[in-house]
Design goal:
Blueprint: E1 2-6, E2 22-23, E3 26-27, H1 28-38, E4 44-48, E5 60-63, H2 71-82, E6 86-90, H3 98-108, E7 113-117, E8 120-128, H4 133-141, H5 147-153, E9 158-160, H6 175-183
Helix pairs in contact: 2-4
């Protein structure tokens, strides 16, 4: 299984690149790559619009085939390039833990599985087998860019996230949410502190 960090969003609600936000000495992107590696995913890919010139991460980069088409296009590019099951996480989940990733990896066992928190399904903390690629292609050709649409059209199985990981998968979209996260005193996983 390959670990994938989605980092291609425009961060328009945040006002600047969320992947570059600094938390306990790491950018959110660096942190997510490290978490995937610590969870035993030896191959990690970052999916995004374009690879930065100053790339120093211990991860491969996969550009979106359709820049600006959202997370579904990022997933499409990685699945087409790798043809393997991927464990997908978003770069904007600062409370994510290695333990939560290990739980998801175990639930998947190499198959597609969509995690579900108390807020609903979490398509950007889920696993996708390469077999969903034709369904992604169909959706994008039809101009439909929703990962939720993929989950519905491909009838992907879901599993309920244990309560202790529920807040780990909450993403940050605005400066206010980021400031609230920092003020709450959330702790990064021990291995990253």
């Amino acid at each position: 299984m390959i670990g994938v960090v989605l980092a291609g969003g425009a961060s328009s609600r945040m006002g600047h690149d969320k992947a570059a936000l600094s938390y306990k000495g790491f950018s959110l992107l660096e942190r997510q790559v490290q978490l995937l590696q610590e969870a035993g995913l030896s191959r990690v890919i970052v999916s995004g619009r374009s690879q930065p010139d100053d790339w120093t991460l211990d991860a491969s980069f996969c550009p979106d085939e359709q820049p600006g088409a959202g997370p579904l296009a990022g997933l499409q590019a990685v699945l087409r390039a790798e043809q393997e099951t991927v464990l997908l996480i978003a770069c904007d989940m600062p409370a994510l833990s290695c333990e939560a990733i290990c739980w998801l990896k175990q639930q998947s066992a190499g198959h597609s599985i969509i995690s579900e928190s108390s807020r609903g399904i979490e398509p950007l903390f889920s696993c996708y087998a390469a077999s969903v690629l034709p369904a992604i292609d169909e959706l994008l050709i039809a101009g439909r860019r929703s990962v939720h649409g993929l989950i519905r059209s491909a009838s992907l199985p879901q599993c309920l996230l244990p309560a202790q990981y529920d807040e780990h998968v909450q993403n940050i979209n605005t400066q206010d949410e980021w400031q609230r996260f920092l003020a709450d005193g959330k702790q990064a996983p021990r291995s990253l502190q």
